[in-house]
Design a protein that fits this description.
The complex is a heterodimer of chains A (885) and B (108). Chain A is of the alpha+beta class. In chain A, 53% of the residues lie in helices and 15% in strands. Chain B has a single domain, classed as Winged helix-like DNA-binding domain superfamily/Winged helix DNA-binding domain (Arc Repressor Mutant, subunit A, Orthogonal Bundle). The radius of gyration of chain B is 15 Å and the shape is globular. Classes of the chains: A alpha+beta (885), B alpha+beta (108).
């Protein structure tokens, strides 16, 4: 059989290579000998017969090489040979090799690390069944939805196979010792089937558990199950205490399951969400709704159908169904960070390209030094393709070593990235150097090897054989072309580096702006803690106020505490609830069109404790309590907007309250604007209400009204040290109250500004790497160019050129390249930085200061990298230079 | 001697296979026989002959062994295999088809 013959040949060729080679050698010698015999038989003298025979055989080595090329597995063998040869060559020039490997490791390592992050966050599908078929239906694309609307949508929308709703939920998990505050989510029973994820143990919720009173059941997340229940399978069926109420564990979700993937992330347990008694509510927007597209239905079709349904509901219940948006689930999960990550991936790609250009420089310089070697190989019968293949193999070997070093670097970089990352990169902790990422690294390394190796290999192999051998090491005909290539590489390096530097420059400006970022309050020396009364005796309506007062008394008595108070939601860290209101003297708004402001509820002394100055009026006092006229403090923004030019003190407003009878609240104070929510978000209208007058917070049972955040201003620079005594103070009043999220206000501010710092750090280090690589590249090119022109310079100086003339001559070349590379870089940067808009704060994407500053920096570095070799050139002793001719 | 014609791809294989139908031969004999039967049109140099022989042997069309030449020189002899004979038949048919086609094309 033909293929068996091929296989045995392959075996013989690879394993008995020595034998094959000896046979071939002998066969060709025998051929020559027979020819010689025949010539002799025809009467030629022995010497002449031998000469004729050898001429007819031709180059013995060339014949052998031709035979080797047709052997089965020849490619395999020459590749092996080339790799061995390449390794030997590289090992002979350790300086070059180490420099090239370092540059490549930097490029490949950084690329691998960033890619693994992009892979984990953006590319890997969400941990649900066919996640591309999942959608969210939310107000304005991110906002919550009222129960009445959700129930109507679920009933009417046919483009969804299923719809389910979730509501954020925090609970105090009782057990031995102090209760632990655990993040959870309440979900309708549709959610788990909708996601298509089966529990690892037990079951999820049944439809009848959506009924109020039936839902004292709970499903545990894998992490909580391991942490609190020692991964005990017998926990299913057991009763646990949540907010003081026994709940039965019905199931445990598998490892890696997370829900929701955005907004209340970090949920560790799930409980049913009874909606029946809230079915009529179209104002209390607290749900996030999830949906699975019906077979055959597209997102567009669902959008069209939802537009019809909400249009109808809006006519029926005006002001309740506007701005309802259907989005793909993956879009909402990664939408915000997608552009930032793609920018980082692009930036790291630039670093890799610069590293490639640098190594290409080095290879070009080496290629000219190896000109003779290549010419010799060609003379001995190597074809051009063979020479190119060998040089490329060497590049790929180099890239492979660089890639291996890069993987080690990537592992370190990745650990650091995860450690310093802001909290807003979903699933970042799952990033790792898995086979998928490593496969990409291998491909990147190979492509890199070819990318930087091809041009030099093509250049090196294009030789004029006799010219090269005769002229020896001096520049040959390929010199001009090679020099053009080097200048091209240099210009593109400069352009790439400039783009990165501009990006980093903009991030630095953002960072500086953030350092000046004034949250409105004074975050220094303040420590805070969230207190949840849920499930404790202190939650009872009559006891809450007493509890808060006693806790604050004890906190104020702690050594080091200057003042203390409490607020419902901390600025920058906590939730923000918008609440509609009406202003006295203005026509009442249509339902759903009332102005709205952030709803803050505080105890007296809050403004002093957080360090937020009251610009007018007074703080709340203990006398602003139930039964006295209602009071409110507004921020400057709200005052300016609704009472422009007038003194807001004494003006009145009322809340569009859900339960309470409308009651006029008199403005008693105006507070400075405090930063809220997102670090870069514009300030918004805010109103502060006295907790002592809030029935919601004093009496309302259920719901999120039995949480408060304690705020204590201290006299120490290490306010975090007071955290433990804060806990003790709370527990000395009621041991069943959960205390969580003990943090200083400076930590809160740092966390809120952590993403620009993260991006600055990454873009900054990429840009620094780019600048160093580009400077080294330019230095290398110019040194080489000057060395090449030694003779010319020597002659010029011998003929009377002054040093200044020579310096100008050398610099002129570099200035041209710098100008071209810089110009292209600035143009590209202008185009690309527009994509950065979302990352910037306090600086425009085309900030002229950054562009000019960065351009000047790069030009300076480039010229310095040129000047050093140029100076060396003018110190050339003309005699010396001419003598080497 | 006429300038050696460029061998069409595959032509050399065909000539070698044909030459070996008369029995095993060593390299020099094969080259001389081809020059002789083509009236000197094809002069096969070792640079083409050896790669062709080795390639065909690996394809299973030829086998080789060390033997003695007429002058008692050690020489590598090549011999057709059964697969080689089939290959010759196939290539002869193919060649006939091509030459007819080219002849027809030139006549038109």
């Amino acid at each position: 059989m033909i293929w068996t013959s091929r296989l045995t040949s392959l075996w013989r060729n690879l394993v008995h290579r020595g034998q094959k080679e000896r046979d071939l050698d002998e066969e060709i010698r025998a051929y020559a000998a027979i020819l010689e015999d025949e010539h002799a038989a025809r009467g030629l003298p022995p010497e002449e017969a031998r000469r004729q025979a050898l001429i007819e055989v031709g180059g013995m080595e060339q014949v052998k090489e031709h035979v080797r090329e047709v052997r089965t597995g020849a490619l395999l063998e020459t590749v092996g040979q080339d790799v061995r040869y390449g390794v030997r060559t590289l090992a002979r020039t350790p300086g070059f090799t180490v420099a090239a490997v370092l540059a490549l490791a930097l490029g490949i390592g950084a690329t691998t690390a960033i890619f693994s992050v992009v892979d984990a966050v953006l590319l890997r599908p969400l941990p649900y069944d066919r996640p591309d078929r999942l959608a969210v239906v939310l107000t304005r694309g991110t906002g919550p939805v009222a129960p009445g609307n959700f129930l109507d949508w679920r009933r009417d929308a046919s483009s969804f196979e299923r719809m389910g709703a979730a509501e954020a939920w925090g609970t105090n998990l009782g057990g031995d010792g102090r209760p632990e505050h655990v993040e959870g989510v309440r979900v309708t029973s549709d959610i788990f089937p909708l996601l298509g994820v089966q529990p690892q143990l037990g079951r999820t919720f049944s439809a009848d558990e959506d009924q109020a009173g039936r839902g004292q059941v709970v499903v545990l997340g894998h992490r909580l199950w391991q942490r609190r229940f020692g991964a005990d399978a017998a926990v299913v069926g057991r009763s646990i205490t949540l907010d003081g109420v026994p709940h039965v564990v019905v199931g445990v979700m598998p490892k890696g399951f997370e829900f929701p993937p955005f907004w209340a992330t970090g949920a560790e347990l799930w409980a049913p969400l009874p909606l029946a008694e809230r079915a009529g509510s179209r104002n209390g927007q607290s749900l996030r709704t999830f949906a699975r597209l019906a077979p055959g239905a597209s997102l567009e079709k669902a959008r069209a159908e939802m537009a019809t349904i909400t249009g109808r509901l809006e006519r029926e219940y005006p002001g309740t169904n506007r701005n309802v948006v259907v989005r793909g689930l993956d879009d909402i999960v990664v939408g915000d960070v997608r552009s930032a990550l793609l920018i980082l991936l692009g930036a790291v790609g630039f670093v890799l390209l610069i590293a490639c250009a640098n190594v290409a420089h080095m290879l070009l310089a080496r290629a000219s030094a190896r000109h003779k070697e290549v010419a010799l190989r060609a003379a001995l019968g190597a074809s051009r393709a063979r020479v190119i293949r060998q040089l490329l193999t060497e590049s790929i070997v180099l890239a492979a070593v660089g890639g291996m070093a890069g993987v080690a670097l990537a592992a370190a970089v990745l650990r650091a990235l995860i450690a310093i990352s802001p909290g807003n990169l979903p699933r970042l902790e799952t990033a790792g150097l898995d086979p998928r990422v490593l496969a990409v690294t291998v491909v990147v390394s190979l492509v890199t090897g070819i990318a930087f190796g091809l041009a030099p290999a093509l250049q090196a192999s294009r030789f004029d054989l006799t010219g090269a051998l005769r002229e020896g090491e001096r520049g040959s005909t390929a010199g001009a072309g090679r020099h053009r290539l080097r200048r091209l590489l240099m210009a593109s390096e400069l352009a790439l580096a400039l783009v990165l530097l501009v990006g980093a420059g903009l991030m630095i400006r953002t960072f500086v702006a953030l350092r000046r970022f004034d949250p409105g309050f004074d975050p220094r020396r303040v420590v805070t803690a969230v207190v949840s009364l849920k499930g404790s005796r202190s939650e009872e309506p009559g006891r809450r106020l007493t509890f808060y007062r006693e806790v604050l008394d004890r906190v104020r008595a702690l050594p080091g505490v200057v003042s203390a108070s409490a607020i419902n939601h901390l600025p920058l860290a906590g939730d923000v609830w918008g609440f509609p209101f009406q202003v006295e003297g203005q026509p009442p708004s249509a339902p759903g069109e009332s102005p709205s402001a952030a709803f803050r509820v505080v105890l007296p002394g809050y403004f002093q404790a957080i360090g937020l100055p009251l610009v007018r009026g007074r703080d709340f006092t203990d006398d602003d309590r139930l039964g006295t006229p209602g009071t409110v403090i507004v921020n400057e923004w709200l005052a300016q907007r609704y009472w422009p030019g007038a003194d807001p003190i004494g003006k009145r407003m009322t809340l569009d309250d859900l339960d309470q009878n409308p009651e006029w609240l008199t403005v008693v104070g105006v507070a400075r604007n405090a930063a809220r929510g997102q670090w870069a978000a514009a300030p918004d209208e805010e109103m502060y209400l006295p907790l002592l007058q809030s029935r919601l917070y004093l009496e309302r049972e259920g719901g999120p009204f039995s949480f408060l955040t304690l705020v204590a201003r201290t006299s120490t620079d290490q306010p975090a040290a007071l955290g433990p005594s804060l806990r003790t103070a709370v527990w000395s009043v009621d041991g069943n109250v959960a205390v969580s999220e003990v943090q200083t206000m400076e930590e809160v501010v740092a966390a809120a500004t952590s993403s620009p710092r993260f991006y600055l750090l990454l873009l900054g280090s990429f840009a620094a790497a780019a600048l160093i690589l580009a400077a080294l590249g330019i230095y290398g090119v110019m040194s080489y160019s000057v060395a090449q022109r030694r003779n010319e310079i020597g002659i010029r100086m011998a003929l009377g050129a002054r040093r200044g003339d020579v310096l100008r001559l050398v610099m002129r070349e570099a200035v041209g390249v710098v100008a071209i590379g810089g110009g292209i870089g600035l143009a590209v940067a202008l185009l690309l930085t527009r994509l950065m808009g979302a990352l910037l704060y306090g600086v425009g994407a085309t900030d002229p200061i950054t562009f000019v500053g960065v351009g000047a920096l790069l030009a300076l570095v480039a010229l310095l990298a040129t000047y050093v070799p140029a100076r060396r050139a003018i110190r050339v002793d003309p005699l010396q230079a001419l003598r080497t001719e | 001697m006429a300038a050696p014609a460029n061998l069409l791809q595959g032509t050399l294989d065909l000539l070698i296979l044909k030459t070996l139908t008369l029995g095993e031969k060593h390299g020099v004999a094969i080259a001389q026989r081809i020059a002789q039967v083509t009236g000197g049109t094809f002069v096969v140099k070792p640079g083409s002959l050896f790669p062709a022989l080795h390639r065909m042997e690996e394809a299973g069309w030829l086998t080789s062994f060390w033997g003695e030449s007429d002058n008692n020189r050690r020489a590598r002899y090549y011999q057709l295999t059964r697969a080689g004979r089939q290959q010759l038949k196939a290539e002869t048919r193919e060649w006939g088809r091509i030459s007819l086609a080219i002849a027809a094309a030139l006549r038109s």
